[in-house]
Amino acid sequence: MNNGDGKRWNGGGEEDEDEDEGSGGGPDGWQITYADERSWESLQEDESGLLRPIDNKILYHAQYRRRIRSLSSQATAARIQKGLIRYLFVIIDLSRAASETDFRPSRMVVVAKLVEAFIREFFDQNPLSQLGLVSVKDGVAQCLTELGGSPESHVKALMGKLECSGESSLQNALDLVHGYLKQIPSYGHREVLVLYSALSTCDPGDIMETIQKCKKSKIRCSVIGLSAELFICKHLCQETGGLYSVALDEPHLKELILEHAPPPPAIAEFAISNLLKMGFPQRAAESSIAICSCHKEAKVGGGYTCPRCKARVCELPTECRVCGLTLISSPHLARSYHHLFPVVPFDEVPLSFLNDANRLPRSCFGCQQSLLNPGK
Amino acid sequence: MASAPSKLYADDVSLLVVLLDTNPFFWSSFSLPFSKFLSHVLSFLNSILLLNQFNQVVVIATGCNSCDYIYDSSSATSTGAESGRMPALCSDLLRKLDEFVTRDQQLGEKDSLGPTTSSLLSGSLSMALCYIQKVFRSGPLHPQPRILCLQGSTDGPEQYVAIMNAIFSAQRSMVPIDSCFMGSNNSAFLQQASYITGGVYQKPQQLDGLFQYLSTVFATDLHSRTFLRLPKSVGVDFRASCFCHKRTIDMGYICSVCLSIFCKHHKKCLTCGSVFGQPQTDVPSASNVK
């Protein structure tokens, strides 16, 4: 297979270079690879005895498909509602445990990078929702950004101060988030995602009371652990109806975090359905000059005009600063339709069908790839 | 040991997937006859293949009841028999197009749901995206794909969700959708498609010179587009239409459960049945939307 050949040549070239360099002084990158990561275990032999690396993509794809199938088999039976207007807080644990190096270069850096990807994915999948960031450091919870809809401001605040120290406190974080989430309108779904690296929590009061408070306010808390499973996290997720998972390694952590980007199945009593007034602004003409309400300076062309108060805004979706009307465009709504009408999973056809050329066509209907001789 | 494989594909190699509208209801009443239109398109496809020896062209026909692949420049059979006067590209394409149109018409007669006069743009967009995904997965070296819609029929509103899903999928894979719309009014779907995916939307004013529009605006590969001033999108209408009257509105009411758009305040959502202002007690089954 061409791809396999290409990879082997490249692998050979790299090994030669490393052997030539090999200077002393501390373990080199390639030595760490052999010592810690046991890269030889990821090699396999194919049928002719030649080496080939494990094709991870196929494994992941198979796992993904299995998971999607199990999720949708419950979902398509009864058309489960999803909470499409979400108010999510991400709590990032920046205690001493976040400086551990079991994730390279450190847990804190890996978590920050993945949270940035999560923020972009979240606003891509849920354009009508809002997100806020909270960090826990030295036993104190601090709000990095309040609930807002612009991904850039969140990412900038996150990357601005990345330092870890002290203990982590789950109760303080939950109390802070509870205070913010109490104020949001009743039709929104309240969610919390905790990225917990520490193995303990240092709380001023009774954390069980805080958990009950969150449960009564209908806040759905999910936790992703980076070190080990903790009872208190498991209890929190069970009480509030969230998901608890512990990451095994960096790709697994990425998968777990991004799993929270699409809207979760909604628990019907949690949000009161309501009719929201929203505006669909038109794009201003290319040569129009107006003072935009977000930057407070004159801009030429581009931009959108609020239909109620005619103020100019630079990007959508946003809330008009003058009259408070939520402004969106129809593609933003259409973005969420595929959550409401999910694709039915494909039926897997056994290999014996394929070899019987009378029953099935010779090539894929969608992409014209030949279906004879599967498995390349 | 041989050296690492040299980069076979430069930045300006493109894979162009052309979605050809073959709706007989549109072409029978249009000022430009279909045969003249085809001659413009065939010259354009030849010129694309001449620009770079690694360029690939795939043509998918959009019918009223089905869509199918008409031509693939990278398949082995495309270098088949040349008739005396036409090159292989034309003879293959025309023959398959002929077969497709007959098949499509037969499907339409069998279907008793009534005549559909809009073409299945969502179907051919999906097929094009499937083909492009296959190209992406074929290895690290592949041409840069883009989609060109040659469309004249009006938008079928029943395809809205499917077309928007295809547009978002193209946006995620970074595949621009260019549109050359020849109908009378502007097509809102194609304008949104080109705006969201970063393609070019053009409504040619004089159809006699269609080849000139195609070769100046749509022939350049993605890398070279950064150096050209291509037609900018003006007046893309992003307003939504309300579900009750299908009128475009610029301020409306949205159900927080199913995101249906209404122009007036209602007590109950017409799509999902949720009663507003009260906590729901039970998961209602979503009735058919649109």
Name the features.
heterodimer, A: 376 residues, alpha/beta, Rossmann fold, 6-stranded mixed sheet, 16 strands, 19% strand, B: 290 residues, two-stranded antiparallel sheet, 32% helix, 16% strand, disordered C terminus
Structure description:
- Chain B: One of its GO terms (biological process) is regulation of DNA-templated transcription.
- Chain B: InterPro entries: TFIIH_Tfb4/GTF2H3 (IPR004600).
- Chain A has 376 residues and is an alpha/beta fold.
- In chain A, 36% of the residues lie in helices and 19% in strands.
- Chain A contains 12 helices and 16 strands.
- In chain A, a hairpin with a 6-residue loop joins strand 15 and strand 16.
- In chain A, helix 4 packs antiparallel against helix 5 (151-160).
- Chain B has 7 helices and 10 strands.
- In chain B, helix 2 runs parallel beside helix 7 (210-218) and helix 4 (121-136) runs parallel beside helix 5 (160-173).
- Chain B starts with 13 loop residues before the first strand and ends in a 28-residue tail after the last strand.
- Chain B is globular and about 65 Å long.
- Chains A and B meet through helix 1, strand 9, strand 10, helix 10 and helix 11 of A and helix 4, helix 5, strand 9 and strand 10 of B.
- Strand 9 (275-279) of chain A pairs antiparallel with strand 9 (251-255) of chain B.
Major sheet details of chain A? 6 strands, mixed
Q: Identify the biggest protein-protein contact and residues per side.
A: A-B, 53 and 61 residues
The gross shape of chain B turns out to be globular
Low-confidence blocks of residues of chain B: 1-7, 282-290
What is the share of helical residues of chain B?
25-40%
Mean pLDDT of chain B: 83
Query: What is the CATH architecture descriptor of the domain at 84-258 in chain A?
Result: 3-Layer(aba) Sandwich
What is the share of helical residues of chain A? Answer: 25-40%
Q: Compute the number of strand runs of chain A.
A: 16
Organism (chain A): Carya illinoinensis
Subcellular location (chain A): Nucleus
Region (Disordered) (chain A): 1-32
GO molecular function, one term (chain A): zinc ion binding
